[in-house]
Amino acid sequence: MTLAVSDPSAHQAYRTGAMAFMVVCATIIGALGFEHIGGYAPCPLCLEQRYAYYAGVPLLFGALVLLSAGELRWAAGLFLVVSLAFLANAGLGAYHAGAEWGFWPGPSSCSGEQAITASAANMLESLQATSVIRCDEAALRILGVSLAGWNALVSIFVFGMCLRAAADSLHAE
Q1: pLDDT bucket at 1, cuts 50 / 70 / 90
Q2: DSSP string, the chain
Q3: Which CATH architecture describes the domain 8-171?
């Protein structure tokens, strides 16, 4: 795919944006793989951290299409929106990782979703069927870093790439 704009900084914006797009896609595919193939059920905070990825995939794709069409300001705007989403996501990931390490308490939702039964006869069955996914315990650590910690690091990386792609898009005008 060739860019409609001949400025080298537009090409750099496209390369940087494409790299961010690939990192975002690979990360969310990895998270879904850990869940559906590896059997690691996500906690409520893990699920919230996926929102930036779910929004980032189509927005980054759209930014790349806009770059290709020569709509540099619109592309820069989308890159900026994605960068801010991933900056917030890095904060959420750091908060989650800190709760896992015991630096601060996690949210009250760390006890997991539990259904309340209206019948005392069904209470024992309901308690046995309830699976609690805790936010304050790491299900898996890779190189000593939990998945929430890795999410914070990846999110900072994506934030930087998207900010750079936005800047390069604006400089290409």
Answers
A1: very low
A2: ---S---HHHHHHHHHHHHHHHHHHHHHHHHHHHHHTT--PPPHHHHHHTHHHHHHHHHHHHHHHHHHTT-HHHHHHHHHHHHHHHHHHHHHHHHHHHHHHTSS---GGGG---PPPS-STTHHHHHHH-----SSS-S-EETTEEHHHHHHHHHHHHHHHHHHHHHHHHHT-
A3: Up-down Bundle (1.20)
Q: pLDDT confidence of 112, banded at 50, 70, 90?
A: very low
Check if the beta carbon of residue 21 is closer than 8 Å to that of residue 57: yes
pTM assigned to the model: 0.78
Look at residues 30, 26, 18, 29 and name the one whose alpha carbon lies nearest to residue 62: 18
Q: Where in the chain are the domains?
A: 8-171
